[in-house]
Every structure is written in structure tokens, then in C-alpha cells.
């Protein structure tokens, strides 16, 4: 079965790392998964952040946040320089407002729910709000204990990052179903 290179791999274990993974194979055949504003909206939905309308400007901003998070992650892994411009960009997006949930009263009594029961109402997210959430997740990840568990897939053609939450912290691939399976097949062929 051929691999869909444009599919969004959600294997990072954290929202920020999944977002960074929207640019594939960074060191070889770089390919952009977020080619259009609609692709960005599709990623937002797949990531479980709701449904948003996006523009070309939102796409440009998303790519900037993504690259700043990638650069900061490499710096945290001692594999690249720490740039103040990246810190400022991520901090700036993290400081933006996000839609807040609200309480609303239930209407009528149905299925055993009291007439005056409270219900949660979640407002529609905006592209700007989603980028704020992604930036905040990046800050939490890069300044917290999980930073020590960030790994890059060992497949030489793959550059996906993930949080290794395996027992013993010995996970080698972004996904056993793709990169791990290919590595095992190569090992078998070499024998």
C-alpha cells in the first residue's frame, strides 16, 4: 500500500509536534502538507481543535509558527541555534486570545436531565486562536519535563519528531506501522 505523503501524521504525542510534522522529510525531499488554507483547516479538524475557516494569511502565519517551533525544538535537543526571533514569535502567538468555553442553561427536561442543568458551550475557534493553542502547547512541551523525551524518527528519510513515552524510552520510529516496518524490512533484506 503506497504511503500518502500528504496525509497528516499525528504521531508526535503532542499537538505542537504534530503541527511541526506538517512539513515532511525536511532533510531530503521536503514536502509541504499544508499547501492551501483548506489543508490548514483540515489539519485543525484532524487534530481535534474544531472547524475553522482559514485564509492565505492564516496559512502564512501557521507556517511561521510551525518553523519557529521546529527550530526551538532542535535547539532544545542541542541540534541547532536558539534564536530570539523564534522565541518572540511563539510567545507572541501564545499570548493571543482563544475562544473561551461558556456555561449555558439546559432547556426543558429530557432523558432525566434537570430543566435547569448547566451545559458547556464551546464557541467556534478561529485560525488565530488555534495557532495560540499550538504555540502554548509548544511552550509547555519545550519548558517542561517531556522535553527530555523528544526524539526524531530514526528512519533516515523521515524527520518526524515525537515524545517517547514508551517504557524504557527506547522508541526509535515515529510509527511502527510505517517507518518501523520499513526499517525491519530493510534489515530482513540485508540478511
Helix tally equals 6
- What sequence of helices (H) and strands (E) makes up the elements? HEEHHHEEHEEH
CATH class: Mainly Alpha
Percentage of residues assigned to helices: 40-55%
CATH topology: Jann2411-like fold
Based on CA atoms alone, the radius of gyration comes out at 19 Å
DSSP strand tally: 6
CATH architecture: Orthogonal Bundle
Number of domains: 1
**Shape, principal axes of CA atoms:** globular
The biggest sheet, with number of strands, parallel, antiparallel or mixed sense and barrel status, is: 2 strands, antiparallel
Broad structural category = mainly alpha
Mean pLDDT over the residues: 86
Strand composition percent: 5-15%
Order of the strands making up the biggest sheet: 1-2
CATH homologous superfamily heading: Jann2411-like domain
Q: Gap between N and C termini, in Å?
A: 24 Å
Q: Extract low-pLDDT stretches.
A: none
Provide structural commentary.
- The protein is built from 6 helices and 6 strands; from the N terminus they run H-E-E-H-H-H-E-E-H-E-E-H.
- The longest helix is centred in the middle third of the chain and has 21 residues, at 56-76.
- It has helices at residues 15-20, 37-46, 56-76, 84-94, 127-143, 176-190, and strands at residues 23-24, 31-32, 102-105, 118-121, 150-152, 161-163.
- It has one domain: Jann2411-like fold (Orthogonal Bundle), CATH 1.10.3300.
- A two-stranded antiparallel ribbon has the order 1-2. Strands 3-4 form a two-stranded antiparallel sheet.
- With 191 residues, the chain is mainly α.
- The two termini are 24 Å apart.
- Helix 3 crosses helix 4 (84-94).
- The chain is 42% helix and 9% strand.
- The model has no long low-confidence stretch (mean pLDDT 86).
Amino acid at each position: 500500500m503506497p504511503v500518502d505523503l500528504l496525509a497528516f501524521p499525528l504521531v508526535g504525542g503532542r499537538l505542537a509536534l504534530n503541527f511541526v510534522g506538517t512539513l515532511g522529510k525536511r532533510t531530503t525531499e521536503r514536502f509541504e502538507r499544508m499547501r492551501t488554507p483548506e489543508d490548514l483547516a483540515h489539519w485543525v479538524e484532524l487534530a481535534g481543535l474544531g472547524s475553522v475557516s482559514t485564509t492565505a494569511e492564516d496559512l502564512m502565519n501557521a507556517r511561521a509558527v510551525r518553523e519557529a517551533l521546529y527550530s526551538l525544538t532542535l535547539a532544545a535537543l542541542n541540534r541547532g541555534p536558539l534564536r530570539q526571533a523564534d522565541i518572540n514569535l511563539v510567545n507572541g502567538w501564545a499570548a493571543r486570545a482563544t475562544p473561551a468555553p461558556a456555561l449555558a442553561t439546559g432547556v426543558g427536561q429530557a432523558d432525566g436531565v434537570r430543566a435547569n442543568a448547566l451545559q458547556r458551550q464551546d464557541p467556534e475557534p478561529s485560525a488565530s486562536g488555534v495557532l495560540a493553542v499550538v504555540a502554548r502547547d509548544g511552550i509547555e512541551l519545550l519548558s517542561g519535563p517531556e522535553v527530555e523525551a523528544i526524539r526524531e524518527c530514526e528512519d533516515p528519510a523521515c524527520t518526524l519528531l515525537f515524545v517517547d513515552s514508551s517504557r524504557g524510552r527506547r522508541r526509535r520510529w515515529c510509527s511502527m506501522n510505517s517507518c518501523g516496518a520499513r526499517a525491519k524490512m530493510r534489515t530482513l533484506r540485508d540478511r
